[in-house]
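Our working data are protein records whose layout never changes between entries. The record below serves as our worked example for the rest of this section:
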Amino acid sequence: MRDTARNIERNSKKKGEKAQTLPPFTMAFAKVATTEDPPGVLTLTEMESTSMMVGPAITTVTFMSGDATSAAKQLRTRFTEVLKANPWLAGRIKKDKASKRVQLHHPMEVKLADVAAMFFGPEEKMPPVVSSTMSFYDICKTLGGSVCEVPTGRDCVSKSTPLVTLSIVVDHHMPKKRFAVIWSVSHVIVDGFTYYKLLAMLSSEGVVASLNAARKHSIEEESERAAGLPESAFMKSGCMICNVVCTMLCSSTKPDIRSYYVDVARVNEAKGKTELTDEVAFVSTNDILSSTFARATDCQVLLVPINFRQKLPAYTENDAGNYEGALCFTRDDCVTPALVRCTLNSGPPAYSRATAVGLPGGCSTFNTRLSMVTSWVFPWYSELKISDCEQILHTPHCDVQMVPFNITVVYRPRAGQTAVAIFSRKIPADVLVAQMPLGSPVTNADQAAQTPLG
């Protein structure tokens, strides 16, 4: 398969000063890492101040059965408690003119007016019309750009726009028996890990806790070294940025959005066919989904986000913000699930790709076919709990106009289940189902309500 030690040495060995030097903007942020922020101000990291500013917020939709008015009262109380424990969530972003960096300015104490600006109950504002009979695509299309979705970071700079919203919207199909909880948080201030930590606190059985929002700017240099300097340089190159932005804004191909339950039998079959070695003692469901999605989309580079908390010593599960990076895989690095696992087993503190195949370089990066597999499954979150209510279906949301390349989001639709949301361009459904371990489609919440677990 490959000699792990040899590849780690290859990736860490000097290839000239240019190859080992961190990007200038990263060094600039590193120089101010020790600067102390005044009370009520958080200087955001370089990634939060740049790439995260143009992307969509993290948003999910959870359909529930029960009384919307009663649930709204419970959720508003929990939401208020979460905000009081984490007042930085009530902040607004501004650009510091002197340093040209983005800062989060927040109240030291949350007031009722702060809560009112971020919480939308079933009778407080004119919400978008959502129904448990709507398809996954239609839900995404309806919520995109609505009051329930936090805008991109660049659209929030120096404005009174909240960076967090919690909305309770009645189900148009069954308004007296069902409703949707829409939780939206700017990706500028949280990653998926923090997002679900906060969502778990909103549950009636959740524990409200204060997270550490003071940014640890060492993440910039440490994440680049962990993911690999050549790989980090590739992801931050101008051609790569143009590739993503141009595809998202200028592509004539309409994004296709689908969701499927993961077929456990097919996953187990794939695991049984994997040749295990001393280097790869097991493969996970995510390894299988990553490898098969890469093949189905015929990508040249696969990106797999990785959470660095508990992997790099400086970052703990109590740290709020964006403490993640992305591992790069060439086509040859993810031909099999075992190769994906081989890379994941090579770290921390540094991760090494499974083969010596180089990444695209120069102008060819502009046309590189990209795909991504990201997991929103976390051990502390299984479903949203609200007294006298029951979760029907939980799904990720993405504005249909904000799909930059082929993306699979692994998520938990209900406790004990795993599903994938696939945001793609030009990939036929039959190709995805044939090559990936997918089962029946996640049609809508109404269908889920009539389908027993198991």
User: Anything to note?
Assistant: The longest strand covers residues 58-65.
